[in-house]
Design a protein that fits this description.
By secondary structure, this protein is α+β, with helices and mostly antiparallel strands. The protein is built from 5 helices and 5 strands.
């Protein structure tokens, strides 16, 4: 049974601008410690456009996935639920997955969430994430 569906769309250019003006503050605000460790190994190499770098795409996907999860819960980031209580990682196949901790984990447990399905897509300078919560 589906408990909730959330989606979010992020401009890679917007993430690039935020990372340029407030890199450490933004990353510490939205990232789990494991994501920060991963990002420290991401070099800001540039593809065709600056916003296509691996670091910017990684931060954008983490942000979009977390926003989509909060929307799927129907709460947004309220009631003590926060970005850093969610950790986005990749399976060996490259598919995104997430883990929760603290109040976010407790909240999902109270909803009796059995599975969390995550999908991320990129198109030009946008990143979209979809999260489905299943009971």
């Amino acid at each position: 049974m589906i408990l909730g569906i959330g989606t979010d769309l992020v401009s890679l250019k917007r993430i690039e601008n935020v990372l340029h003006s407030h890199p450490q503050r933004f990353i510490e605000k939205i990232c789990h410690p494991d994501e920060i460790a991963y990002l420290s190994g991401c070099h800001c190499e540039t593809a065709l456009q600056p916003w296509q770098s691996k670091k910017i795409r990684t931060v954008a996907s983490c942000f979009a996935i977390k926003e989509a999860l909060a929307k799927a819960c129907g709460t947004g980031f309220s009631q003590g639920l926060w970005f850093s209580q969610i950790c986005v990682s990749r399976l060996a196949s490259g598919a995104p997955t997430l883990a929760t901790s603290g109040l976010f984990e407790n909240y999902l447990n109270s909803l009796k969430v059995a599975s969390i399905h995550v999908s991320v897509s990129y198109e030009k300078d946008f990143c979209q994430a979809i999260v489905i919560l299943e009971k």
